[in-house]
Amino acid sequence: MNENGISIEAKSLTKVYHRGSEQIPAVNDVSLRINRGDFISIIGPSGSGKTTLVNLLGCLDNPTSGELSLAGRPIFSGAKRLSERDLTKIRRETFGYIFQNFYLIPTLTVMENVMLPLTFYRKSGLEDEGMKLLKLLGMDHRKDHLPGQVSGGEMQRVAIARAMVNRPEILLADEPTGNLDTKRSAEIVQVLQELNRTARLTIIMVTHNQELARHAARIFEMRDGRISEIPNHKQVAK
Amino acid sequence: MITKFQVAYKNLLRKRVRSLLTLVGIALSAWVLVSLLGFNHGYEASLNRDIDNMGFELMLMAKGCPYEAATLMLKGGTGLRYINESFMGDVAKEPEVEKTFPMLMSAVFDPNKGESGGISGYFGVEPKSFAELKPSLKFRQGGWFTDVNAYEAVMGYEAAELEQREVGDKILMPEKNVEFKVVGILNRTGTQDDGTIFVPLKTLQKMFGRPNELTTIGIKLKKGIDSVRFEEKLYKLPDVQVVSLTQVKDTIMGLISTAKVMVLSIAIIAILIAMVGVINTILMSVHERFQEIGILKTIGAMPWDIFKLIWIETLILCAIGGVLGVGLALLLSKATEVLIRYVMPYAPSGGLVLIDLKLVLFTMAVILCIGLVSGLYPAWKAGRIRPLEAIRSNIG
User: Fold this and answer.
1) ipTM
2) Nearest 5°: CA angle at B376, between B319 and B272?
3) Does B344 share its domain with B388?
4) Domains present along chain A, CATH in parentheses
5) Is B222 helix (H, G, I), strand (E, B) or coil?
6) Closest Cα to residue A100, out of A212, A160, A190, A179?
7) Is the CB of residue A120 less than 8 Å from the CB of residue B301?
8) Looking at B238, B263, B289, which one is the last position of a domain?
9) B4-12 and A110-120 helices cross at what angle (nearest 10)?
10) Is residue B308 part of a domain?
């Protein structure tokens, strides 16, 4: 992390999709700065560009133009495009990802799913990290169960543990509660808040649910590919 | 920690029936391959042993089709024509010859053999020279004939078992209606001698009205003598045909090679089908796990990691299939032998399918190479999956 504590900095980030001759700017000239330890929510209607923005911030995709730097390190600038291999390297060193559909491997146990990222890339001293995380998330008693044997909320906890096992600097959660009921959704957001507070983890959460978005310290709204920060939570309620 | 091997292995258990069917395909092709190579190896070894056990390098017989005569002789049948005993003396005088062996083969129809009768062969030999020719022959009971003109018989192991005879029993020669006293029973040799009934040469000549006539003269050459050159020398003798056992072996192997090519073609087709099966299984698995593979890349897997994961799956399938196929071949080698003996015009005695460690390792290496090749395309395709496309897709 750099001295001034900036985790992610985007300048004029733009992503244009082409459908025939038509150009669709999914993310249009987005600039934002996210500090280390921030918990931010991105809200907005469907098709507003939330997920595309998170994919760009999470190095899952190359932008059409604009700049992105992580902890002061330039990632995208100008027309330079990174290969899938380079993007993977950045991703595994920096990010943890949580998705709406959990994407757990059905043939692996809860513990094996959590430990799976370490099969491909392992920061040193993380041998016991899986068990620690499962305990933290209250899932240690389910470690030998298969994903099909646990509830949706529990699956998302497992997915969170998997995202955290390599101690990422930034956690990206794309609709993490989209498949959960209200009670389970609140539990998951509480878990994220706890991780943000205790580990000073930067969290970027995309959600439709404005109630859940209010748990974040900062809230951004996307509309037609453009972003704006909502100064306080009351405005979200409106 | 979970290893890539564990991830790959557990994934194969996801679609058990599909994995099992692919395994069966690989196992069958491995079975065909190892059995065929075992047959190649075993047939030649047994033929060599049969020919070596004959104890001589050349056969002298009356003019006719030499190969037919030689084949009949190898099968314990009767020769087509007869030559005079006097040839034996002439040949024995040659400086290259170490020893000569007179042989007379005769056959009679035995109505009690099989369901509708069959041919029983009798082999007339001089006990002294024949014992020298085949020092490896050992008696289970008794010994050689007491007199050159005696009505006595020495039975091969299987012939005695089949006829249920022991030393001291009588054996009736059908057609001629003459009884022989069994004076010796040989140990098992694994050659055609096991099924042969030996009688004194003189007695057989007298019974069949062929005094001083032989079907074959076996010639053993001195060490270091060029058999081809001596063969040419023998061609100068009138009305005789020389058959070199090396020639016989080459001819039989030549005939067998046609069958080998056909079976090899079937084996190659079986392997190709198994390969297509493996490629199809792994490709389907990759397609079904499109999203999952994308997620693996999101959580840190490099393209090469995914490539290895898919490759390991292919190798696991091929290794297990290969082991099953080799096991099947070992278990069913006797049955394969029975089948080969049934379809082959001539099969030597002893094991026809010889599967040794070298062959097993070679087959496993071939099957694993097939696995490596079959896994290349699906693994490459999986390695190229982009996480973003996978997450967006509805597959998997």
Assistant:
1) 0.86
2) 65
3) yes
4) 38-64+81-237 (3.40.50.300)
5) coil
6) A179
7) yes
8) B238
9) 130
10) yes
Q: What is the pLDDT of residues A45-89, one digit of tens each?
A: 888 999 899 999 999 888 999 999 888 888 888 667 777 788 888
pTM exceeds cut of 0.90: no
- Regarding whether B256 and B233 lie in a shared domain, the answer is no
Q: Are residues B284 and B184 in the same domain?
A: no
Q: How far is CA B28 from CA B35, B61, B274, in A?
A: 10, 47, 8
Count of structural domains within chain B: 2
pLDDT, tens digit (0-9, with 9 covering 90-100), for A213-236: 888 999 999 999 999 998 765 455
Contact B1 A115 (CB under 8 A): yes
User: Considering the domain boundaries, does residue B41 fall inside one?
Assistant: yes
Q: Check whether residue B201 and residue B267 sit in a common domain.
A: no
Residue B84, strand partner residues: B213
Cβ pair B300:A92 closer than 8 A: yes
| Residue-by-residue DSSP string for A99-124 | ETT----TTS-HHHHHHHHHHH---T
Range of the domain at B183: 64-238
In a domain, B125, yes or no: yes
pLDDT at B73 over 70: no
Which of A55, A127, A166 lies at the smallest CB-CB distance from B300?
Answer: A166
Question: How many Å lie between the alpha carbon of B11 and the closest alpha carbon of chain A?
Answer: 6
Task: State pLDDT tens for residues B267-300.
Answer: 888 888 888 988 998 999 899 889 889 999 988 8
3-state SS class at B50: helix
- E-strand ranges in chain B read 58-62, 83-84, 97-110, 118-125, 139-142, 152-155, 170-173, 178-186, 197-200, 213-214, 216-221, 240-244
Q: Are residues B286 and B363 in the same domain?
A: yes
Nearest chain B residue to A164 by CA: give it: B299
**Cβ contacts of A92 on chain B, cutoff 8 Å:** 299-300
The answer to whether residues B33 and B107 belong to one domain is no
Whether B209 and B321 map to the same domain: the answer is no
* Residue B166 lies inside a defined structural domain of this protein: yes
Distances (CA, A) of A226 to A45, A46, A51, A175: 12, 13, 13, 19
- Determine, for residues B391 and A92 on separate chains, whether the beta-carbon distance falls below 8 Å: no
Cβ of A88 within 8 Å of Cβ of B2? The answer is no
- Cα dihedral B168, B173, B179, B181, rounded to 10, equals -20
Do B306 and B226 sit in the same domain of this protein?
no
